[in-house]
Design a protein that fits this description.
Strands 4, 5, 6, 7, 10, 11, 12, 13 and 14 form a nine-stranded mixed β-sheet that branches. A three-stranded antiparallel β-sheet has the order 2-1-3, with no helix packed on it. The protein has a two-stranded antiparallel sheet with strand order 8-9. Helix content is about 25%, strand content about 25%. By secondary structure, it is α+β, with helices and mostly antiparallel strands. The chain folds into three domains: about 50 residues, Roll (Structural Genomics Hypothetical 15.5 Kd Protein In mrcA-pckA Intergenic Region, Chain A); about 70 residues, Alpha-Beta Plaits, CATH 3.30.70; about 70 residues, Pseudouridine synthase (2-Layer Sandwich), CATH 3.30.2350. The longest helix has 10 residues. It has seven helices and 14 strands.
């Protein structure tokens, strides 16, 4: 197994981060600094050490993104999350929200977190509160829960709870572009408000619109374990 793949599978770093650690001379194999990218190792026999002492600690923050703010660095698309919170310019967006949606957004420089939340093999559930103009009909909700066919393929089954006449909570493990809006459109439901309130074990709670907080070590460890 390649050493950077091993580090990624162990949750030490993403593959890209692992490659950078090797380039920086911070990875040793059986006591010797690795100097060749892609060196093969035997996880059962070899000892791999990452020398991270003195390196800046990774940071992950959650933000309650207001409606009208763009999850992007491209200013031509509108006011960006980085214009709202310029102190986090060095962090990447994890789990984008479209401009007209609001709620829980993650910013991080931790590739393992990014992989856990948005990687191809991720299983972390995301929960949204959806308000619609039309009456919420149980038959349509049941159809949504079972999965429907969109133009880019069938959706996975999801869970819908807390139904009222014009709103419901939906939890799903996918993250396609405008997925919930497209699912509702398929059921002739017009979305008037869409808000993400949870990513895995992390909930938005009482975080005010435009507010943010840094995740603690325990919360980060849980997210990495949920992947």
């Amino acid at each position: 197994m390649r050493i950077q793949k091993y580090l990624s599978l162990q949750g030490v770093a993403s593959r890209r981060e692992a490659e950078q650690l090797i380039k920086d001379g911070l990875v040793s194999l059986n006591g010797k600094i690795v100097t060749i990218m892609g060196v093969q190792i035997d996880p059962e026999k070899d000892t791999i050490t990452v020398h991270t002492k003195g390196l800046a600690k990774k940071m992950t923050v959650i933000v309650n993104k207001p409606r009208g703010i763009v999850s992007s660095r491209i200013k031509s698309e509108g006011k960006t999350i980085y214009e709202l919170l310029p102190q986090f310019e060095n962090l990447d967006i994890i789990g984008r929200l479209d401009k007209e949606s609001e709620g829980l957004l993650m910013l991080s420089d931790d590739g393992v977190i990014a992989k856990a939340v948005t990687g191809e093999a991720h299983t972390i559930e995301k929960e949204y509160v959806v308000s619609v103009r039309e009456n919420v009909i149980p038959g349509k909700i049941k159809t949504l829960e079972g999965g429907i066919v969109l133009e880019d393929g069938p959706t996975l089954p999801c869970t819908i709870t807390n139904m009222t006449r014009h709103s419901f909570n939906i939890s799903l493990r996918e993250g396609r572009k405008h997925q919930i809006r497209r699912m509702c459109d398929q059921m002739n439901l017009t979305v008037t408000d869409l808000r993400r309130i949870r990513i895995g074990s992390i909930v938005i709670g009482t975080l005010v619109s435009g507010g943010y907080r840094r995740l603690n070590d325990e919360e980060v460890a849980v997210i990495k374990g949920e992947k």
